[in-house]
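Risk mitigation, structural track. In case the binding assays with guanosine-5'-triphosphate fail to produce interpretable data, a predicted complex structure has been prepared as a fallback.
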Amino acid sequence: MIPLTAIVLAGGKSSRMGRDKALILIEGLPLLQLVCRVAGSCADTVYIVTPWQERYEHLILPKSQFIQEVALSVEPEQKLSSHGPIVGFAQGLAHVQTEWVLLLACDLPKLRVAVLQDWKAELDTVEDDVIAALVYHVKGWEPLCGFYRRRCLPTLLEYINQGGRSFQEWLKQHPVKVLPLADPEMLLNCNTPEDLPSL
Ligand SMILES: Nc1nc2c(ncn2[C@@H]2O[C@H](COP(=O)(O)OP(=O)(O)OP(=O)(O)O)[C@@H](O)[C@H]2O)c(=O)[nH]1
Ligand SMILES: [Mg+2]
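Fallback model:
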Protein backbone atom coordinates (compact mmCIF):
# COMPACT_ATOMS: atom_id res chain seq x y z
CA MET A 1 0.00 0.00 0.00
CA ILE A 2 1.22 3.48 -0.76
CA PRO A 3 2.14 5.78 2.12
CA LEU A 4 -0.69 8.20 2.87
CA THR A 5 -1.28 11.25 5.06
CA ALA A 6 -4.77 12.35 6.11
CA ILE A 7 -5.96 15.89 6.76
CA VAL A 8 -9.08 16.37 8.87
CA LEU A 9 -10.63 19.84 8.78
CA ALA A 10 -12.02 21.01 12.10
CA GLY A 11 -12.15 24.77 11.80
CA GLY A 12 -15.70 25.41 10.64
CA LYS A 13 -18.14 27.61 12.52
CA SER A 14 -20.92 24.99 12.84
CA SER A 15 -23.35 27.88 12.51
CA ARG A 16 -26.19 25.73 11.17
CA MET A 17 -25.70 23.15 13.94
CA GLY A 18 -25.49 25.80 16.65
CA ARG A 19 -22.71 23.95 18.52
CA ASP A 20 -19.33 22.54 17.57
CA LYS A 21 -19.98 19.60 15.24
CA ALA A 22 -16.59 18.07 15.99
CA LEU A 23 -17.69 17.38 19.57
CA ILE A 24 -21.15 15.94 18.87
CA LEU A 25 -21.40 12.41 20.26
CA ILE A 26 -22.14 9.64 17.76
CA GLU A 27 -22.75 6.38 19.59
CA GLY A 28 -20.82 7.82 22.51
CA LEU A 29 -17.81 9.04 20.50
CA PRO A 30 -17.06 12.67 19.67
CA LEU A 31 -17.40 13.01 15.90
CA LEU A 32 -13.86 14.33 15.40
CA GLN A 33 -12.48 11.33 17.30
CA LEU A 34 -14.53 8.97 15.11
CA VAL A 35 -13.37 10.62 11.87
CA CYS A 36 -9.72 10.63 13.01
CA ARG A 37 -9.97 6.95 13.88
CA VAL A 38 -11.18 6.17 10.35
CA ALA A 39 -8.48 8.44 8.91
CA GLY A 40 -5.87 6.63 10.99
CA SER A 41 -6.93 3.26 9.61
CA CYS A 42 -6.05 4.44 6.10
CA ALA A 43 -3.18 6.85 6.72
CA ASP A 44 0.12 6.79 8.58
CA THR A 45 -0.27 10.32 9.94
CA VAL A 46 -3.39 12.42 10.54
CA TYR A 47 -3.21 16.22 10.61
CA ILE A 48 -6.10 18.02 12.27
CA VAL A 49 -6.28 21.57 10.95
CA THR A 50 -8.02 23.92 13.35
CA PRO A 51 -7.61 27.39 14.84
CA TRP A 52 -8.82 26.11 18.26
CA GLN A 53 -6.95 22.91 19.12
CA GLU A 54 -7.53 23.48 22.87
CA ARG A 55 -11.13 22.36 22.28
CA TYR A 56 -9.97 18.94 21.10
CA GLU A 57 -6.82 18.19 23.10
CA HIS A 58 -8.75 15.96 25.52
CA LEU A 59 -9.88 13.60 22.74
CA ILE A 60 -8.19 10.27 22.05
CA LEU A 61 -6.56 10.85 18.69
CA PRO A 62 -3.91 8.23 17.84
CA LYS A 63 -1.53 9.02 14.94
CA SER A 64 -2.86 12.59 14.97
CA GLN A 65 -1.15 15.97 15.19
CA PHE A 66 -2.74 19.39 15.33
CA ILE A 67 -1.90 22.02 12.77
CA GLN A 68 -2.66 25.48 14.09
CA GLU A 69 -4.54 27.37 11.44
CA VAL A 70 -3.51 30.98 10.99
CA ALA A 71 -5.18 34.01 9.45
CA LEU A 72 -4.12 34.84 5.91
CA SER A 73 -2.18 38.06 5.55
CA VAL A 74 -5.01 39.44 3.40
CA GLU A 75 -7.57 38.73 6.10
CA PRO A 76 -8.11 40.53 9.39
CA GLU A 77 -7.70 38.33 12.47
CA GLN A 78 -11.43 38.24 13.20
CA LYS A 79 -12.11 36.56 9.85
CA LEU A 80 -9.98 33.56 10.75
CA SER A 81 -12.91 31.28 11.52
CA SER A 82 -14.65 32.06 8.26
CA HIS A 83 -11.93 31.79 5.63
CA GLY A 84 -13.24 28.38 4.68
CA PRO A 85 -12.20 24.79 4.19
CA ILE A 86 -10.01 25.36 1.13
CA VAL A 87 -7.67 27.60 3.15
CA GLY A 88 -7.53 25.08 6.00
CA PHE A 89 -6.69 22.38 3.47
CA ALA A 90 -3.86 24.44 1.96
CA GLN A 91 -2.36 25.08 5.39
CA GLY A 92 -2.46 21.36 6.18
CA LEU A 93 -1.12 20.35 2.77
CA ALA A 94 1.98 22.47 3.31
CA HIS A 95 3.05 19.91 5.98
CA VAL A 96 2.40 16.78 3.92
CA GLN A 97 5.37 14.67 2.80
CA THR A 98 3.58 11.83 1.02
CA GLU A 99 2.56 11.97 -2.65
CA TRP A 100 -1.13 11.54 -1.80
CA VAL A 101 -3.27 12.93 1.00
CA LEU A 102 -6.75 11.94 2.13
CA LEU A 103 -8.85 15.01 2.94
CA LEU A 104 -11.82 14.59 5.28
CA ALA A 105 -14.36 16.94 6.81
CA CYS A 106 -14.95 16.36 10.52
CA ASP A 107 -18.71 16.00 10.06
CA LEU A 108 -18.86 12.61 8.29
CA PRO A 109 -20.37 10.10 10.74
CA LYS A 110 -20.95 7.34 8.15
CA LEU A 111 -17.44 6.97 6.75
CA ARG A 112 -16.50 3.42 5.82
CA VAL A 113 -12.91 2.26 6.13
CA ALA A 114 -13.38 -0.48 3.48
CA VAL A 115 -14.50 2.05 0.86
CA LEU A 116 -11.60 4.40 1.64
CA GLN A 117 -9.18 1.45 1.45
CA ASP A 118 -10.57 0.44 -1.97
CA TRP A 119 -10.09 3.98 -3.24
CA LYS A 120 -6.59 4.13 -1.77
CA ALA A 121 -5.67 0.92 -3.60
CA GLU A 122 -6.41 2.66 -6.93
CA LEU A 123 -4.11 5.62 -6.33
CA ASP A 124 -0.93 4.14 -7.81
CA THR A 125 -2.68 3.74 -11.16
CA VAL A 126 -3.92 7.34 -11.37
CA GLU A 127 -2.60 9.26 -14.40
CA ASP A 128 0.27 11.64 -13.71
CA ASP A 129 -1.55 14.86 -14.60
CA VAL A 130 -4.49 14.16 -12.29
CA ILE A 131 -4.44 16.31 -9.11
CA ALA A 132 -7.27 14.68 -7.17
CA ALA A 133 -9.48 11.59 -6.98
CA LEU A 134 -13.00 12.38 -5.77
CA VAL A 135 -16.62 11.32 -5.95
CA TYR A 136 -18.68 13.24 -8.51
CA HIS A 137 -22.44 13.79 -8.37
CA VAL A 138 -24.97 16.10 -9.99
CA LYS A 139 -24.01 19.05 -7.80
CA GLY A 140 -20.29 18.65 -8.54
CA TRP A 141 -17.29 17.15 -6.77
CA GLU A 142 -17.31 15.96 -3.14
CA PRO A 143 -14.15 17.80 -2.16
CA LEU A 144 -14.09 16.93 1.55
CA CYS A 145 -13.89 13.16 1.32
CA GLY A 146 -11.24 12.19 -1.19
CA PHE A 147 -7.62 12.27 -2.26
CA TYR A 148 -5.29 15.00 -3.51
CA ARG A 149 -1.74 14.97 -4.82
CA ARG A 150 0.69 16.94 -2.69
CA ARG A 151 1.97 18.69 -5.79
CA CYS A 152 -1.34 20.51 -6.28
CA LEU A 153 -0.27 22.89 -3.48
CA PRO A 154 1.25 25.61 -5.75
CA THR A 155 -1.86 25.84 -7.95
CA LEU A 156 -4.05 25.78 -4.83
CA LEU A 157 -2.11 28.65 -3.24
CA GLU A 158 -2.23 30.62 -6.46
CA TYR A 159 -6.00 30.19 -6.58
CA ILE A 160 -6.39 31.22 -2.90
CA ASN A 161 -4.05 34.20 -3.27
CA GLN A 162 -6.19 35.44 -6.14
CA GLY A 163 -9.14 35.44 -3.73
CA GLY A 164 -10.67 32.10 -4.75
CA ARG A 165 -12.42 30.09 -2.01
CA SER A 166 -14.43 27.52 -3.98
CA PHE A 167 -13.25 23.93 -4.29
CA GLN A 168 -15.62 23.41 -7.23
CA GLU A 169 -14.21 26.36 -9.15
CA TRP A 170 -10.60 25.38 -8.44
CA LEU A 171 -11.16 21.73 -9.34
CA LYS A 172 -12.74 22.70 -12.69
CA GLN A 173 -9.35 24.00 -13.77
CA HIS A 174 -7.62 20.59 -13.37
CA PRO A 175 -7.96 16.91 -14.31
CA VAL A 176 -9.66 14.97 -11.50
CA LYS A 177 -10.30 11.23 -11.37
CA VAL A 178 -13.82 10.07 -10.51
CA LEU A 179 -14.07 7.62 -7.60
CA PRO A 180 -16.88 5.06 -7.58
CA LEU A 181 -19.37 5.09 -4.71
CA ALA A 182 -22.09 2.45 -4.58
CA ASP A 183 -23.78 3.75 -1.43
CA PRO A 184 -23.86 7.55 -1.13
CA GLU A 185 -24.86 7.32 2.54
CA MET A 186 -21.19 7.25 3.40
CA LEU A 187 -20.95 10.92 2.45
CA LEU A 188 -23.77 12.03 4.70
CA ASN A 189 -22.50 15.06 6.54
CA CYS A 190 -24.31 16.47 9.52
CA ASN A 191 -24.87 20.17 9.19
CA THR A 192 -28.08 20.85 11.13
CA PRO A 193 -29.69 19.44 14.31
CA GLU A 194 -32.24 17.75 12.02
CA ASP A 195 -29.45 15.63 10.48
CA LEU A 196 -28.73 14.01 13.86
CA PRO A 197 -31.70 11.76 14.68
CA SER A 198 -31.10 9.67 11.55
CA LEU A 199 -27.66 8.65 12.83
N1 LIG B 1 -9.75 24.18 9.17
C1 LIG B 1 -10.88 24.70 8.72
N2 LIG B 1 -11.92 23.88 8.52
C2 LIG B 1 -13.07 24.43 8.06
C3 LIG B 1 -13.22 25.81 7.81
N3 LIG B 1 -14.48 26.03 7.36
C4 LIG B 1 -15.10 24.83 7.35
N4 LIG B 1 -14.24 23.86 7.77
C5 LIG B 1 -14.50 22.43 7.91
O1 LIG B 1 -14.97 21.97 6.67
C6 LIG B 1 -15.93 20.94 6.87
C7 LIG B 1 -17.23 21.25 6.18
O2 LIG B 1 -17.72 22.46 6.69
P1 LIG B 1 -19.25 22.78 6.78
O3 LIG B 1 -20.09 21.55 6.72
O4 LIG B 1 -19.60 23.89 5.87
O5 LIG B 1 -19.25 23.23 8.29
P2 LIG B 1 -19.15 24.58 9.01
O6 LIG B 1 -18.50 25.64 8.19
O7 LIG B 1 -18.57 24.25 10.33
O8 LIG B 1 -20.70 24.86 9.26
P3 LIG B 1 -21.66 26.05 8.86
O9 LIG B 1 -21.18 27.24 9.67
O10 LIG B 1 -23.02 25.57 9.32
O11 LIG B 1 -21.53 26.24 7.38
C8 LIG B 1 -16.05 20.77 8.39
O12 LIG B 1 -15.16 19.73 8.75
C9 LIG B 1 -15.56 22.09 8.93
O13 LIG B 1 -15.01 21.98 10.22
C10 LIG B 1 -12.08 26.65 8.04
O14 LIG B 1 -12.11 27.87 7.86
N5 LIG B 1 -10.94 26.03 8.49
MG1 LIG C 1 -20.85 19.88 6.11
